Structure formats: C-alpha cells, structure tokens
Automatic annotation (TrEMBL), chains A, B:
Pfam families: TetR_N. This is TetR family transcriptional regulator. Keywords: DNA-binding, Transcription, Transcription regulation. The lineage of its organism: Bacteria, Bacillati, Actinomycetota, Actinomycetes, Streptosporangiales. The keyword Ligase does not apply. Residues 2-62 form the HTH tetR-type domain. Residues 25-44 bind DNA.
DNA sequence: GTCTATACTGTGATAGAC
DNA sequence: GTCTATCACAGTATAGAC
C-alpha cells in the first residue's frame, strides 16, 4: 500500500489521462486516489504543483521501464519499431498522454511550463542517445545537429500521439509514411560518400544563391 | 460591426489561445465577446458546440489568408520558409494555437474530436498539395505516401508549436535540425536515379531478411 | 496526517422579462 | 435576440477537530 503522497501523484497522472487538463481538479484527483480533497493542498500546496510533481514522477518511472529497450537499439529500423510500440503502449496507459495534457496546459499557465520541460527533456535525452548511436555511420551526422533532431523527434511524437487521439486512421497513415521515409535514410547509409559529396555541392550552391 | 454569432466564434478562439482549453467557459468567452453568457447557449447550444464551430471557422479563415503563399511554393526550401513563418505568425495570434488546445481537449472529450479533425484536415489538405508539388521531381514520391506524409507533417507541426510554448530555445534547435535535414532531401533530388537504385536495393534486402 | 466543515467564487444551463 | 435572475453544483483554499 502506497502512502498518500504517492497515491496522489499516481492519481494525478491517471486523471490527466482520463479527464484531460480541463478535467483535473483537487476534487477529481483526490477521488481517484480515494482520499480527501484537502490533502492535495496539504501535501503539494496547489493543484498546479501536484501536476508538476506528478509529470516528473511519471516520466522518470516510465522511462526506467523503457531504458533497456532504448539501450538495445542499434539501427534506425529498431528505433522505429521501439517508437511505434512506445506509441501504442503510452497512448493507452502511459505518461506521454499525461505529458501532452500539461504541455497544452503549459501554453497558458506559466506555472506548468517548467515541469513540462523537465518531463519532456527526460524523453529527449533518451531519444538523443539512441539517435546518435543509430546515426553514427550515417552521412547525416555531418550536416544535422543530433540534439536538435532528438528535440524535433520528441515534439513530433507528442503531436502524433495527440493526433491519434482524435483520428486514429489518419495517425496510422502518418506513421506508415514516416516508416517509408526511414527506408530512404537507410539507403543513404549504403551510399554514404556519394551522399556526402552531393550534400556538400548543394550547400555550396545554396550559399552562392544567397 | 460583427453580429453576435461571429463575435462569439472569434471570442472562443481568442479565449482558447489566451486561457487554454482548461480556461474556456461560457462566461470567459462571453466576456471576451462583450456579450451575455446566456447567448452562448442560445446560439450554439453548449460550450463544446461553440468550440467546434469556432475551430472550423477559424481554420477556414486562417487558411484563406495563407492560401496564396501555399500556392506560391515550388521548392522544399520555399515550403520550409513558409512553415517557419507560419509557425511564428500562428503561435502569437493564429488559429493553430487554438487548434492545439482543442486537440488536447479532444483526447478526453469525444464531442470535441470531430471538430478537431475537421480543422486539422483543412491544414493537411493544403500541406498535401504543396508537398506533392515540391516532391514531384524527387525520388521520394516513389516510396512514400504523400498523403500520409502531409498528415505526419501537420501533426509534427502542432507538436512543435506546443513545444515552443514551454521551451522556445529547444523548439528553435528542433526547427534548425529539421532545416538541415531538408538540405539533405534537396541533395537527393540532384542524384535521383542513384537514390532510386539504392532504395530499391535496400528494399529487396529488407524483404529477404524478413 | 487525515478528516469535516466552511467561505467564496466559477460553471453549465434554464426561465422569463423586455 | 438579448438581457437579468436563478439553480444546483464544482472549483480553490483554509481553519480546526481528531
């Protein structure tokens, strides 16, 4: 049996998932946790602070669950497979759905923004490590900032998860297209030197034009 | 001077942007419109239905504003430039921010989901047209579904806009990385036949392995 | 630490005057 | 079409009994 603090943290995540950012309140969270509403303020001071703590708590827990699978990734193909099952698993019961909700809330509530960034960065760090391993042999690393690419990947991932929530079929098509795109990137690795030369030529030409 | 219906539609968008999905209510919207709260229910039946109508209204208006610029896009470089200024313009005063909020709300409120899809599809259609023009000469069209790619692009775009709302610097890095990636795709066009051959070889090999 | 009780404000929605 | 008035309920937050 978990203590009340932990029960509230977990109930906050569950409520974010089931009711969304518009549906969370001290009352709904406390009801989910099976405790009194006043304890939210006793333990966390305000609903916002509870949400912030919950996101950090949840992301850390959830990432620990995926860490081994991230570490096992060696190719782009494997990274994509992990991304797709992560997408499926997280949407239903994970913390990315909750993260997406505070991300939306953080747009207008400055108190939520820092916690959201912390939660996102935990994922980004994991993606960046996997990406730099996967792309080590690729001509891409020469031209693209892997840190930035990891951030873009994480942001796009959240966007796709939200998209899936309102149009599952459309999201499926989007994911399929991205997989096709990945085959192309794999092909680039087979022709590394050629690509490098072409990109350099392209960069020169672009600079001349400007 | 606009009629009350229109004032409510526009006020709903403005409230979504300024207060987020968690902050919209018949009262906040009516206050923004400068009319009485009861008129929300008289004209739209419920807050949800007003939000749905507002998203559709806003997306259509906003896209009309961008239509010429979408039509003028002929290269990937131009599409990226449009995407970046669209990103900047929409975040501050546009309808994508509002769309992102109902997208988050639609995860848990089934009544919001259809309207969100309609709004998103308006953007997706525009992106798809531009993409198919831009990629016409690229070897990509042979291997990647452009419709799916447009959906992925729109979803990623919304994700990046939300990301920007909580971490502007990180979002900037993400966008920069995506631009670098685009140079690579441009380079591919310069070597179309070669790439086509490499991808086909890669596809054959992948099939053998499975 | 946890509960009850309470204050005050916000919310969706309706009835009815104008 | 627009307003005022009103309803019953949900929201944050605090004080104080246990």
């Amino acid at each position: 049996m978990a203590d009340t603090r932990t029960k509230l943290l977990e109930a906050a995540l569950e409520t974010l998932r089931k009711q969304g950012i518009a549906g969370v309140s001290a009352r709904t969270i406390a009801a989910e946790a099976g405790v009194n509403q006043a304890l939210v303020f006793y333990h966390f001071g305000s609903v916002d602070q509870l949400l912030g703590a919950a996101i950090e708590h949840g992301s850390q827990q959830r990432i620990a669950l995926y860490r081994e699978r991230f570490a096992a990734v060696g190719t782009l193909r494997e990274l994509l497979d992990l991304g797709r099952s992560l997408h499926t698993e997280e949407r239903a019961a994970g913390s990315v759905a909750a993260l997406a909700q505070v991300l939306a809330g953080g747009q207008t509530d400055p108190k939520l923004a820092p916690a959201t960034t912390v939660g996102l960065n935990l994922w980004i760090a994991e993606v960046e490590q996997a990406l730099s391993r996967v792309l080590a042999a690729s001509p891409l690393v020469e031209f693209v900032d892997v840190g930035g690419l990891a951030k873009a990947t994480a942001a796009a991932f959240v966007g796709l998860e939200l998209y899936e929530g309102v149009d599952a079929e459309g999201a499926g098509q989007a994911l399929d297209a991205l997989e096709d795109l990945a085959v192309l990137v794999s092909a680039l690795e087979d022709m590394g030197p050629l690509v490098r030369r072409a990109v350099r030529a392209r960069l020169r030409r672009t600079q001349d034009h400007s």
